[in-house]
Amino acid sequence: MQELAQQVVSGLASGSIYASMALALVLIYRSMNVINFAQGEMAMFTTFIAWQLVQQGLPLWAAFTATIAVAFVGAVLLERIVIRPVERAGPLTIVIVTLGLLITFNGLAGLFWGYVIKSFPSPFPAAPINIGGVAFSSQDVGIILVSLASLGVISLFFAKTKLGLAMRAAALYPAASQVLGIRVSWMLALGWGLSAVVGAISGMMVAPVVFLDPNMMQGIVVYAFAAAVLGGVESPLGAVVGGLILGVLLNLLGTYVEFVGTDLRLAVAFAIIVAVLLIRPAGLFGRVSVARV
Amino acid sequence: MRLRADRNLAVAIVAIVIALLPFIVPSFSTFELTYVGAYAIAILGLIVLTGMNGQISLGHGAFLAVGGYVVAILAHRFGLSFWLSIPIAAIVSGIVGIGLGFVALRLEGVYLALATFSLAVATPSILKRFGDLTGGVMGIVLPPVAAPKVLAGVLTPVQWFYYVTWAFAGVLFLVTARFLGGRVGRSLRALRDNEIAAVSFGVNPHFYKTLAFGWSAAFAGIAGALIAIPTAYVSPDSYSSLLSITLLIGAVLGGIDTMWGALAGGVMIEFLPLWVQKINNAAPSVVYGVALILVMLVMPGGIAGTLLRLVQRRPPAPGDAVLRRTEPTRAVEQ
Amino acid sequence: MFISSKQLIGSVAAAFALVLTSGATSPLVAQSVPGVTATEVVLGGLHPCSGPASAYCTIGKGAAAYFAYVNDKGGVNGRKITYKDLDDAYSPPQAMQLARQLVEQDHVFAMFNTLGTPSNTAIRPYLNQNQVPQLYVATGATTWAHDSSQYPWTIGWQPDYQSEAIIYARNLLKVAPNAKIGVIYQNDDYGKDYLAGLHKGLGPKSSLIVKEVSYETTDPDVSSQIGQLKASGADTFFIFATPKFALQSLVIAAQQSWHPTIYLNNVSANDVVMKGATEKGGATATAGVISVGYLKDPLDPRWANDSGLALFKQIMAKYAPGVDTSNLFYMYGCGAAYTMVDTLQKAGRDLTRQKLMDAAIHLNEANNPFVMPGIVVQTTPSNHFPITQEQLAKYDNGRFVPFGSIIDARPIIASESK
Fold it and tell me: Residue of A12, B141, C31, C111 with fewest CB within 10 Å of its CB?
């Protein structure tokens, strides 16, 4: 019983990692209907920037804030320089360009910071919390809270602010938005910037747990894809809930289903992606508006 | 008809060059060019699937794994000669591909890219899991290639397998050209460019899309076999997600709209990592990534596409739905 | 053993060439040996510098730095070493092609320190068939030594994973014969070799193992695995992992209030891991962790005044400026390169591949400055494990404190052989 509780709690903690990354993926999908395969590497790269700033003696919160600013500006520039020229190209071109970014950022991080794992400071207290023999860290709680907070801010931003509404309009009805005077192209760049911010936050939350190296995000990003699909790739709420469900599900399958064990988790993630897309392509929380054949 | 004559001439010249190369270049280059042939076959499959039919696969490494492991297991367990095991590899891989093709019917564009990408990432762990069959983490060592006794004095084993690979490539190119030039090709392209219109003209989308997947998977299976045999070793590490990514990148760099792209793409996959190392030994992947992005920005048709356009002095063909977005709504923006 | 026609032609031609050159006045018989001239000897290497295993790239850079240092001091027997180290991205097919390129185009004299069990398994038959020495491969699998009768041109360098695990098992049986053991291992050749060694070392007492769990390098974290181990009731924890996952294991075990006796494999028992785990999991996360060592960890205060470490720092500062010298992989590269240079030296002025192999199986190197004092890099024609001695150490108050004498796993492996 205690083991079950521990696995569920650990699952929620891992799930919060997937959730925070899934949130970034969903944001970019919402703003331009593409999947950014470099999302994880961009998050990793910005986390390294934060690490560097801390090494230079900046207080943690100052480094966080500066990194978020760098992530936003960097991603907007990246969109202007690299994505905009292929904006009207088909999905394949954008997939390839984001794969190019993935390879580049991974290589750059290795070049600048090497492959030795780095310990990343946590803003939360280190002492573990122990309730009835079930243990978790305050970092785990912190990741969930920060993800929920990001979710709240994002939802408010899209629902209540003029800019947020304009961004959604630009993604859904680019032509009509243009007529209404929305600068659609800039809205896309903003979408990149925002998702990079969420990615940077995710990276800085995750790094204290999984430790920082250039390959930090490579495993996480597949689970984040699965979480996003499970929750509905257009729904920020779905991304968070999908991530948490996925985390718990993988732990329970890994612990109690002999066949899955700890080594078929990726295959389970793949199976979930396929199953959800086949049975309910809009995911748990998405609107059923996905193009279907 | 000028164009067709030109094309036939070009094909003949390329075939002759390929046939003569082993006697001109050193043995190790012949060995490398064998891989070019195998990669070209895999990319040819991707050109059918992605270029002609618009389905993006980031998981073709999985089919290479199927092909490689089928040949390795059959050789290791039953001592089967590769003449028999390569066709079996194609069939098994093709069946797996058709299975995945059914799933792909429900997925479009980025969704399919996503699903196949997760397959690519999961492939090594699946190979490790069924270790009784696959040899687990240690993989399977294959016997070395030997030329048949009749040719023993004429060809080295390396030259021999070069010709085997390129013979496969030649036949598969001709078969593909024949099908793509006919009704099958027209149906695939019609589905890619405008599915609703194609269906209303009586093209069965389920049949053709699944066919494209099975076709391309079978080709990838053959390629996987042709890579495993000269390497003489298969292991889960041979089939990381990087392989799948590299294949699609090779296809796009080569030119995914034309069969010539397979040739150019095979050369790219084989030699680009070497060139890149020469440019910057410290961070080869940075050069690789940046070069890839630049090519996409400057010549989205890939190498073969761009060359063809230069040679034929004509504007790009319209309606390449995979490379150019077709929704009119997107194109309004300044 | 059959010989291909090409080889036959090749050897006939070589013999013919030998006859021709020996008649000439020039004493340069070495001309007929690939990769060797009067002033140069060319070595080839493979390390992954792109792809998932890029962390190991630095080993090649460490070795290259040492060779550069040796060259500046006049080289080996008057020859400068050219080290052609290529990136195989940890992919066996790529390794196979690059090995052929190095042998057939670049005409390397020998391969040195090619990395990874998969890549080395792929290229071993080819190199042996062509009688190219495959020296001091950077992997701790046992096959390099155990299969030396089939592949006589291949030899490892570092202690093999199995004998390391055997050393732990023996220590455990001595101090806690009724332990309940939980194991976490990486699901690949590396982790499984350790696991196999643990089983061998425990022998009939293998039933002490109550739970074995694996992880994939793609797993984000190992909290689920640690939860399973804790629930199994294990009181002894074996970690056979790469640094990242070892670090996570230590921290998560502490966070889940699980405080077993911990054995940590050598690859991960470095300062980065131990400091990180202490910082995140508290002092209890690392107190009493047992491991073995054979290299001098640059961050270990024990070597603060050591001349070998001073040499290492001097070499790195001059020939690989700006790199993070706390990375133990550089030390590894230098250590292996030292043995390579030593071997070239012993092989003599008239270098041949056969002489090099002879030297490689008659090593007796007690003074490798990058290896812990007391450890002798040693081989004989019947023993192809260069390093088999390791020092047990226990983590206490911020550093590994050696205990007991240096343990030689040689007798254990010898009995395990075949």
Answer: C31
